[in-house]
C-alpha cells in the first residue's frame, strides 16, 4: 500500500471498517478463487465475500450475461416495476429451483442486503400472527440493523443497538447432544409463551456463530414444534444457501419446509446486491407498498442471478462437486487437528462451510494472520473469534483446496510456535 493510498483511507474512512485491518492490501482485480493486489500479488480467497461469491470472482458465464445486458441498454433501476430481467429471474427461480423441489413460495424483494430480508421476515411474521414474541438461538447472526440485532445471539453485537431489544428470547442452539424433546419447553419460555410467539428464526449452520452445525433430527423437531403451536419458522439461508452446503437450500437434507426463507449474498451470483424473501402463499398479506425500498429492484443482479440458476442448477453436478470438495476440506482440517495433539484443535462444518476450532481467539487470529502472510484469506468467527472459517467459492479447484490446506497447516505450525 502506497503512503498516498494509506493516507486517504485513514483520512476519510470511518474507524468502523474491519476487513481492511485484517488484510491491509489494496486489491485491484479478481478472478475465480483469487484476489490480486495492486502490486500483482495473488491471494487465494477462502472468504469469498463472506459467502457472496459462491461462483467465484468475475465468473465468465455470469460476466458475459451481464455485459450483454449492459450493452443492450437493459434497465438498471426500476424499484418494483416489471422488467424483462425481473420476469426472467422469477421464471428461472420457479423452473430451476422451486418446482423441482416441490416448493410453492411467493417472492418478496425486500431490498439489497440480507438484513433487509430478515427485517421483512420479522415484520411479516408479526403482522400475520398478531403476536410480538420472537425466538432466536445462541450465537446466531442475522444482520446489524435494529430488528435483525434483536434476534442476534452475540451479546456484544446486540449491545451495539444502544437500546433495549425487547420481545425476543434466546434459545440454546443444537449441540449434537441435547434432547430434541426439550424444544417445546424452550419455546414456551419465550415472551408471551407459545401463544405469544410469532416466529422462530434459525440457521442450519451458524456461520458467524462459529460453524455450528444443527442435526437434521433437531431441525425437524423444531419445525414440528412450530407447526403444532402456529409459530412461523423463518430459515435464514443468507450465507448457507445457494449451494454452500451442497443442495441449493441448506434445509433440503433435513427435509423441512420453512414458512419463510431469507436469501441474499450469493443469490445474485456475481456479488451484486440483492435479497429475496420466500413466503408461503397464505402468508402474503402485505398491502401495496406496505414494505418497500428504493433499491429492491436491482436489475443487474436479476440478470446474473437468473444466469447462475440456469448455468449451475439445471442438474445436480454442482451439488455433488460441493459435497466432494467439502469432504476434502473437512478431511484436511481433521488431519491438521490430529497433527498437533494438545493444541485444542477440532474440525467442524458441512459442505464448503468449514471451520477449525482453536483453543481461543488469540490462536485463531494468529493463524489467520499467518495465512494472510502466505497468500490465503481466511477469517475468524464464533464466540471470542476462536474458529478459523473457510468459505471458498464453490468453483474452487481441488488443487486450490490442497494449496489452501498446505498454507493453513504451515500457518497453524507457525502460530503455535509464536504463541508457545
Automatic annotation (TrEMBL):
The gene is ectB. Belongs to the class-III pyridoxal-phosphate-dependent aminotransferase family. InterPro entries: Aminotrans_3, Aminotrans_3_PPA_site, Dat, Ectoine_EctB, PyrdxlP-dep_Trfase, PyrdxlP-dep_Trfase_major, PyrdxlP-dep_Trfase_small. Its cofactor is pyridoxal 5'-phosphate. One of its GO terms (molecular function) is diaminobutyrate-2-oxoglutarate transaminase activity. PANTHER family: DIAMINOBUTYRATE--2-OXOGLUTARATE AMINOTRANSFERASE, DIAMINOBUTYRATE--2-OXOGLUTARATE TRANSAMINASE. One of its GO terms (biological process) is ectoine biosynthetic process. It holds the Pfam family Aminotran_3. Pathway: Amine and polyamine biosynthesis; ectoine biosynthesis; L-ectoine from L-aspartate 4-semialdehyde: step 1/3. This is Diaminobutyrate--2-oxoglutarate transaminase. It comes from the Bacteria. SUPFAM superfamilies: PLP-dependent transferases. Its EC number is 2.6.1.76. Keywords: Aminotransferase, Pyridoxal phosphate, Transferase.
